[in-house]
C-alpha cells in the first residue's frame, strides 16, 4: 500500500491544527484579543474594541469624568507639565489641575531623559491596573510615596516609546 500521497485523516489533522493555531493567535470571542497586551505590563480587557473604535480624546479637556470611564480609549495630550519622575519609564504629569501617571511601554531603556518641570505631549491609551501594578515597575528607592499614590489610582496612560515629544506638541 502506497502512503506517499497522504491520507484523508492526515489532511483533516493538518486543517484542525491550522484552525487551532489561528484561533490561539488571533483570540476568540470571549477573551478579547490574545496579543493585545504582548510586550506590555498591563492588558486591556474585553470590550475595549468598542473603545478603540471611538475617536481619539484629548486629555484632560475632553475627559471630564474619572479616567476609569475611559479605559481602552486612545488619548492625545498636549502641553503637560512633568511633576515628578519617580520610576523607570514612568512619571506623573499635570494639566488644568488633573494628574495622570504616564508609563512608557518598552522592553528596554527608552532614549528619553524626562525631568520634572519639562513640558511633554503624547499619544497613548488609558490602561486599567490594580494596586499591585507599582510592584511591576522599578521605582527609585526614595519614591515609595509615589508608588503608593499610583497603587491608589486605578488607571494610567500607557504610551509607546515613539509617541512622546517634548514641548507643546
What would your notes on this structure say?
- The chain is of the alpha+beta class and 169 residues long.
- The protein folds into two domains: 1-35; 50-166, Bacterial OB-fold (OB fold (Dihydrolipoamide Acetyltransferase, E2P), Beta Barrel), CATH 2.40.50.200.
- It has helices at 8-26, 48-53, 144-151; strands at residues 57-58, 74-87, 90-95, 98-105, 119-128, 155-160, 164-166.
- It has a five-stranded mixed β-barrel.
- Strand 3 (90-95) and strand 4 (98-105) form a beta hairpin.
- The longest helix has 19 residues, at 8-26.
- The termini are far apart.
- Residues 23-47 have low confidence and may be disordered.
Question: Brief overview, please?
Answer:
The chain contains three helices and seven strands. By secondary structure, it is α+β, with helices and mostly antiparallel strands. The chain has a five-stranded mixed beta barrel.
State Rg: 21 Å
- Which H/E pattern describes the elements? HHEEEEEHEE
CATH class of the largest domain: Mainly Beta
Helix content: 10-25%
Please, how many helices? 3
Most strands sheet:
5 strands, mixed, barrel
CATH homology superfamily of the largest domain: Bacterial OB-fold
CATH topology of the largest domain: OB fold (Dihydrolipoamide Acetyltransferase, E2P)
What is the percentage of strand-forming residues? 25-35%
Structural class per helix/strand content?
alpha+beta
CATH architecture of the largest domain: Beta Barrel
Kindly report how far apart the N and C termini lie.
72 Å
Average pLDDT confidence is 80
Taken from the alpha-carbon principal axes, the silhouette is globular
**What is the strand tally?**
7
Amino acid at each position: 500500500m502506497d502512503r506517499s500521497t497522504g491520507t484523508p485523516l492526515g489532511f483533516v489533522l493538518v486543517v484542525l491544527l491550522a484552525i487551532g493555531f489561528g484561533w490561539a493567535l488571533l483570540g476568540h470571542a470571549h477573551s478579547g484579543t490574545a496579543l493585545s497586551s504582548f510586550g506590555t505590563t498591563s492588558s486591556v480587557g474585553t470590550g475595549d474594541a468598542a473603545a478603540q473604535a471611538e475617536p481619539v480624546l484629548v486629555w484632560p479637556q475632553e475627559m471630564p469624568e474619572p479616567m476609569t470611564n475611559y479605559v481602552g480609549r486612545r488619548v492625545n495630550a498636549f502641553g503637560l507639565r512633568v511633576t515628578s519622575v519617580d520610576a523607570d519609564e514612568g512619571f506623573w504629569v499635570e494639566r488644568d489641575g488633573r494628574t495622570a501617571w504616564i508609563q512608557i511601554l518598552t522592553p528596554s531603556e527608552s532614549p528619553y531623559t524626562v525631568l520634572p518641570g519639562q513640558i511633554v505631549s503624547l499619544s497613548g491609551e488609558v490602561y486599567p491596573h490594580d494596586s499591585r501594578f507599582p510592584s511591576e515597575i522599578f521605582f527609585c528607592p526614595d519614591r515609595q510615596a509615589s508608588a503608593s499614590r499610583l497603587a491608589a489610582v486605578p488607571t494610567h496612560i500607557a504610551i509607546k516609546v515613539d509617541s512622546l515629544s517634548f514641548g507643546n506638541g
